[in-house]
Amino acid sequence: MPSLNSESLSSFHWMANMVESVEVGLVVLDLDFRVQMWNGFMEHHSGMTASKVHNQVLFELFPDIPRAWLSSKVEAVTQLNTRAFTSWEQRPYLLRFRNTRPITGTEEFMYQNLTISPLCGPSGKVEKVCLMIYDVTDIASNKRALERANDQLAKLSMIDRLTGLLNRGTWENLLDAEFSRYRRYGSNSTLVMFDIDHFKAINDRFGHLVGDEVIRHTAATTRSHLRHSDSAGRYGGEEFGIILPETDTEGALTICKRILNAISREPVTVDSHNITYTISIGVAPLTDRPKNYMAWLEQADQAMYSAKQAGRNQIVTFS
Ligand SMILES: Nc1nc2c(ncn2[C@@H]2O[C@H](COP(=O)(O)OP(=O)(O)OP(=O)(O)O)[C@@H](O)[C@H]2O)c(=O)[nH]1
């Protein structure tokens, strides 16, 4: 029937056109990974024409393709006669193409989702596979930007903005965790609370902004004397806390003396003012006595208050 033939021919023609122009990479491979079909998307992004790649082994055209991984995927597809799918989150791309999207121009390469489909011959046996490569750079880029923003937010909500130390909430949670650890495993742990002496006078004399610089300097000096495993936090305006895990009273006193001396001996220069100031420190080694972390905190606070009462610029250990 000639009319049917020309109709089939015409529908084949527009289908071929569609395959050529669709915004998805289409590659047909035989079971030896030789390229049988390569559509316009692939030509455009790889810079290789269909006639050039025809019958070439994919791994030779793209030596960077993870061969073992793709082979095992294709094997599963042919044996089970079923599709396989991998997303950009598992593997960012199969073929490294440059990112050509104008909006997500910051991404270096094209993120891809990949589907591998079995293609059966007339006998019903899988004879070829089709790789469908989707450009998902927009989605990946948005998701990555969102993740970065969330990480940033999580960090910001844990950190005190003025000093970069842990903020009160985060620090108290750590103190609670350290108290529980002690209850379960024992071993030394010491809590230090300290406060800048006569800070109100610094604010009154030099202004709030200079006061802020003094707080920042105190935090930086403290941080520079601590180990990675110690946790320093800003507890209140000019009050700070330090958790010293695995540290006994003697060890804590050594660190505290260093911080106290570093602060009292070196004036801090802000806006050409040389400001000399001191701190008062309370030390509370953890024993079985406090009921909870708040009671432990209370002990360190009491010791710090005693240091103020005794004339400031000194360290008192809770007893
Ligand atoms: N610049 C600045 N000042 C703050 C901040 N937070 C609290 N303050 C001020 O710190 C001062 C603390 O004063 P007080 O609690 O009376 O203590 P002090 O003057 O340090 O005296 P002692 O602790 O008894 O030695 C107050 O004037 C608060 O306004 C801050 O973030 N920046």
Automatic annotation (TrEMBL):
Record carries keyword Acetylation: no
Gene Ontology MF terms: diguanylate cyclase activity; kinase activity
SUPFAM superfamilies from the UniProt entry: Nucleotide cyclase, PYP-like sensor domain (PAS domain)
Cofactors demanded by this protein: Mg(2+)
Catalytic reaction equation(s): 2 GTP = 3',3'-c-di-GMP + 2 diphosphate
Keywords of the record: Kinase, Transferase
InterPro entries in the cross-refs: Diguanylate_Cyclase, GGDEF_dom, Nucleotide_cyclase, PAS, PAS-like_dom_sf, PAS_4, Rev_trsase/Diguanyl_cyclase
Class of enzymatic activity (EC top level): transferase
Residue ranges constituting the GGDEF domain according to the UniProt record: 187-319
Enzyme Commission number: 2.7.7.65
Tree of life domain: Bacteria
Record field: transmembrane: none
Designated name of the protein: diguanylate cyclase
Pfam families the UniProt entry points to: GGDEF, PAS_4
